[in-house]
Design a protein that fits this description.
By secondary structure, the chain is mainly alpha-helical. Helix content is 58%, strand content 3%. The chain contains five helices and two strands. The chain has a two-stranded antiparallel ribbon with strand order 1-2. It starts with a helix and ends in a 15-residue tail after the last helix.
């Protein structure tokens, strides 16, 4: 699903804390941009509203602060991912066990993959 600049501007305006330069979001890591795109796509598909997203993200950030998060912006997209995981579970799109299984599988696949090569999952990654 293609995301246009109007959707990106809308997200930047409605969701607090997105690191921006000028009018555009900036991402320190490729996975930050991917997480941002996933959230925009799920919002566009009607899975959640920006108000619901912002409230859940705020809750995740508050929990992290209580747990000692440095709150210096370096962990912002970790909270973004926690928010994504929480909302897709709450909406019944998946469950935390499945998310953990895939996370572990990707980790195993990444460990065996030479640097610069595409990471490919196979059934043994889920054992």
């Amino acid at each position: 699903m293609a995301l246009d600049s109007e959707q990106v501007r809308d997200a930047v305006a409605r969701v607090p804390g997105i690191p921006i330069e000028g009018d555009d979001p900036v991402f320190a890591e490729p996975w930050h941009a991917q997480a941002f795109a996933i959230a925009l796509s799920l919002h566009q598909a009607g899975v959640f509203t920006w108000t619901e997203w912002a409230e859940t993200l705020g809750d995740e950030i508050t929990k992290a602060r209580i747990s000692g998060d440095p709150d210096d912006g370096s962990t912002y997209y970790k909270h973004w991912m926690a928010t994504l995981e929480r909302l897709v579970e709450n909406k019944g799109l998946t469950n935390l066990q499945t998310l953990q299984d895939y996370s572990n599988a990707w980790g195993r696949a990444a460990e065996r993959t030479p640097h610069g090569s595409p990471i490919l999952l196979d059934s043994s990654d889920f054992d």
